[in-house]
Specification:
Number of strands: 11
Order of helices and strands: EHEHHEHEHEEEEEHHEHHEH
Distance between the termini: 13 Å
CATH superfamily: Glycoside hydrolase/deacetylase
CATH architecture: Alpha-Beta Barrel
Largest sheet: 5 strands, parallel
Radius of gyration: 18 Å
CATH class: Alpha Beta
Oligomer: single chain
Mean pLDDT: 92
Structural class: alpha/beta
Number of domains: 1
Number of helices: 10
Length: 299
């Protein structure tokens, strides 16, 4: 079964946890490590024959156009991660639209490829910002992967649909590929990647993701380039818990990622959604089961 591999392309100083201490106007003052870290991910993906969707911050795209071209030329999908990494529920629809257009223009002007998939900064499409789907549909996006069916202090819709499904708006329709979690109710466990991937033992992560495939559904995995960089500068910003979340287990992430790439087959978000639509949709618009003919690699 094909699963979706996604990378949110931003630098270590652009994370939401540090935004109160690092104004966006000072981003250019920090040592950038996003190119070297993303290129390392490209090497790993080529080694394991994995294709991914790279959700690129527009600010990063404008400053490192060569990186955008290398990602595109390597056969990966380009998506938008916004321009300024602002939380959607802190914006007005007009502000979100302007930010999104600026991001897409940057990526498309560099690559020549149409941007048709979006990932909100910090999964910030929540019940407070469901209006974002109308903006995405209006601008021609086909897929969103921003909803996290879990509870968190910054994001999440606990009772959200966990399967790939269609979202209908007055501006049109688009697919939602929600982040992956297992369990139910208060026992819901997020296992899509990021800090959870760094925190959990790799065997637990592989077992949880394998259980998703066993019930006939693909999962979506995400990571940031800075998460494979244990030598990144230690910034004295954010709360103690925020710093712990950011720096925990950075040294072991690349080895864990290698295990993951060896254990499953990965493709871009668009390819996984397309296969899901082709094989299993059958006209349904809500909960959709996925039954792939491809075999999951042995764990």
């Amino acid at each position: 079964m094909l699963n979706a591999l996604t990378i949110d392309v931003e630098d270590y100083y652009q994370v939401t946890a540090f935004e109160q201490s690092i104004p966006r106007s000072s981003w250019g003052d920090y040592e950038s490590r996003v190119v070297r870290n993303t290129e390392r991910l490209l090497e790993l993906f080529e080694l394991h024959d994995a294709t991914a969707t790279f959700y690129i911050l527009g600010w990063v795209a404008e400053r490192f156009p060569g990186l955008v071209r290398r990602i595109h030329e390597a056969g990966h999908e380009l998506g938008s991660h916004s321009y300024w990494h602002r939380l959607i529920y802190q914006l007005e629809p007009r502000e979100f639209r302007e930010d999104l257009i600026k991001s897409c223009d940057a990526i498309q002007d560099i690559s020549g490829a149409k941007v048709k998939t979006f990932r909100a900064p910090s999964f910030s499409i929540t019940k407070r910002s469901l209006w974002a789907f109308e903006v995405l549909a209006e601008l021609g996006f086909e897929i969103d992967s921003s909803v996290y069916p879990t509870a968190h202090d910054r994001y999440g819709i606990r009772d959200a649909n966990r399967s790939i499904h269609r979202v209908e708006t007055v501006q049109g329709e688009l697919w939602e590929f929600p982040m992956t979690s297992i369990g139910r109710g208060p026992l819901t466990v997020p296992i899509s990647g990021g800090g959870y991937f760094r925190l959990y033992p790799i065997k637990a992560t592989l077992k949880g993701l394998h259980s998703v495939n066993l019930r006939g559904e693909p999962f979506v995995f995400y990571l940031h380039p800075w998460e494979i960089d244990p030598l990144q500068p230690r910034l004295p910003h954010g709360s103690r818990i925020s710093r712990w979340r950011h720096y925990v287990n950075l040294a072991s992430t690349e080895a864990k990622l290698t295990r993951l790439l060896q254990s499953f087959d990965f493709a871009s978000v668009s390819r996984v959604v397309s296969q899901h639509n082709r094989d299993e949709c059958n006209g349904h618009r809500l909960s959709l089961d996925v039954a792939e003919s491809e075999t999951v690699k042995d764990l």
